[in-house]
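HUMAN: Can I see a protein plus its fold?

ASSISTANT:
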Amino acid sequence: MAALRSSRRAFLPPLCRAFAGPGCQLAPERGAERRDAASGREKEEFIHSRLKAKGLELRAGSGQKATLDAEEMADFYKEFLSKNFLKHMYYNRLVQA
């Protein structure tokens, strides 16, 4: 049974690429760390800009890092998901195939 599972996974990526269509650009796996870091920077920039708009600093007087509430972060996540919709769609196609 384990042999069937491992052989199925060996064929999965080429099949997914074949059915993904000509416009599909799959990112290399090595770049995942860079993509995560980039999204983290976007998030930090968003938080910093919102805090600045409120007249607050990134660190409170006590040295504790200032944060935004869930309502404010929902704006960031909505924008992030909209901007990366195609990437997530291709990923879901790859994983569920």
